[in-house]
Every structure is written in structure tokens, then in C-alpha cells.
Amino acid sequence: MKAAIIFDMDGTIFQTNRILEASLRDAFHYLRDEGLWKGRTPIETYREMMGAPLSVVWSTLLPDHSIQVRRQMNDVFHEQLIGNIQKGNGALYPNTEKLLGYLSDRGFPIFVASNGYPHYLQAIVESHSLGEWISTCYSIQEIQSEDKADLIRQIKEDHNLSHGIVVGDRLSDFKGAEANHFLSIGCAFDFSQDKELLQADIVVDDLIEIKEYMEKLATE
Q1: Do 71 and 161 sit in the same domain of this protein?
Q2: Of 59, 86, 113, which residue constitutes the final position of a domain?
Q3: pTM, 2 dp
Q4: Distances (CA, A) of 155 to 6, 165, 171
Q5: pLDDT (tens digit, 9 = 90+) per residue, 52-101?
Q6: Do the Cβ atoms of 10 and 170 come closer than 8 Å?
Q7: Could you count the other beta carbons within 10 Å of the beta carbon of residue 145?
């Protein structure tokens, strides 16, 4: 069986940066209207935390707010994200379709392992017709732990995978690959950090480089 390719979604396949600021700004505007927030929207803090479980994100952004308020904010934020996706404000990274088509044509099973909520992931898949190539999107919200390694392990067990490649942009992706004895490919995209990319086995600046890497492997 060929190696499975497991992609992160945000900052790897989907250019979340195109809708992040507007969605987060609108979510915090809701919080201001409720009299529960003063000051600027913490966009840069959120950008730095991309790849972290959402419970960690909201406890960091709203340390003095109740769990109920954090959950409400998460719901509002996702409503804004999905609305922007459906309006066509988001985009895939360059060469995403070309890479996925190449991998699919050559029989590589393709999955997504993401911290995003299932309905959010589904909105991206539907809006960009990714279901043609991606077998299943796995959300960390669907497992008991908030560890990306456990999510990748779930994919590994569900599909009886002996080897695979994890493509992502943050440390949780690379550590998750390592914990499951998979190869990791780091994407030096919008939310990536140089010090974290050092933990990836391979680093690319464009998804098409993965196609070139796979072709090189096939000739060796």
C-alpha cells in the first residue's frame, strides 16, 4: 500500500489568513456589543497560536472570561469563518489542486487532520470541491485528547496504515508525524515559524515541490 498523505488544513491547504482577520474582528465586535470586551482585537496573538487546540486559543485570548463566554465566542467566530468561506473570500494555496490530483491519480490515500471543527472543514471541502481527492477530514474535536499526534494515530488505525507523510505548517504537525513514525513536510507559509520548521523532515515553499519530491522518490 502506498503511503497515506495527511494534510493539515489551515495554513497548509487553505489560506486562512484571507478570512481570519475579518472573522475574528466581527467575533470580537460581538463581544464588545455584549459589554464583555474593550480594546483591540488580538489578531496577532491568534496568528501566533495557529495550530493550537481551540480550547487553548480561547483560554489564552479570553483568560478572564467564563467557559460559557469562550464557547459562545467560538461559535460566533466559526459562523463568521464559514460565512466568509461561502462568500468566496478564502482560497486554497497555489498548486493545491494540482498536487492533490497528482497524488490521487497515483493511488495515494489523502486525509486531513485538523484542529478545526467538522462543519468548518466541510465548508472548505464543499466550497473548493476537495471531496474529489480527500477521503476523510478528521477533526481533533472528535477525539478525547487535543493532541494532533493522537488524531494522526486515529487515522493510522482506522485505515491500517503502515507508513505515511504528514504535511503541515506548525510544530504540532511535525511532532504528530514523529510520534507515529511518519515523514513530515513543513510548509513555509503564512502561519509557519522558522524555529518550528526546523523540526520538519522536509520544508517546502510551494506545494508543487511535494509533487517533485514524490517523483524523485519514485525514480530512486
Answers
A1: no
A2: 86
A3: 0.93
A4: 9, 12, 19
A5: 888 899 999 999 999 999 999 999 999 999 999 999 999 999 999 999 99
A6: no
A7: 12
